[in-house]
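Human:
Class, as today's exercise, you are to examine the entry below, and be ready to discuss the fold:
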Amino acid sequence: MADPDEMAAFHSMVAPYDRSDSTAHAFWTGPRVNGYGMVGHEWAHRLAYRLHRGQIAPGMVIRHLCNTRSCVRIEHLKVGTQKQNMADMVEAGRTSVLGPLSDDDVVAIRWMYATGRFSQNQIASIFWGDGTGQSRISKIVNGHHYPDLPGPITHRGQGTRPSRRED
């Protein structure tokens, strides 16, 4: 049985929602990380499941059947494997699988970043339509990906501060 004080504290951080509407979300109003609610060092959706359904077996994840990261409504949560969670994500179209890059694309990315006129997020937006590829851009411009291709390799963000550009 869940601790009544812990249950009350949890529900104090959940926005009111229409319980009669099965599609209504119970949004977490407390701190969030990447859209997911956090309670101390625990994910809010995992805490919701634990408080309402009991312990979660080791290695299992809590799946958001509603595809809404900040939702903690117990009817929208289901225990499962990471493989099932990934399948849910693909089925819902929530993947950020980035398209392939040609060798010319890689060289262009390196030159764009080397000019100082484009941020990594801006370059990712140009190539994929949003900033989801920023970490991939970082690995390209730092030479961690495609190390044999030409183009300037930067060491920005690796201990040396770039000089200020004067306009």
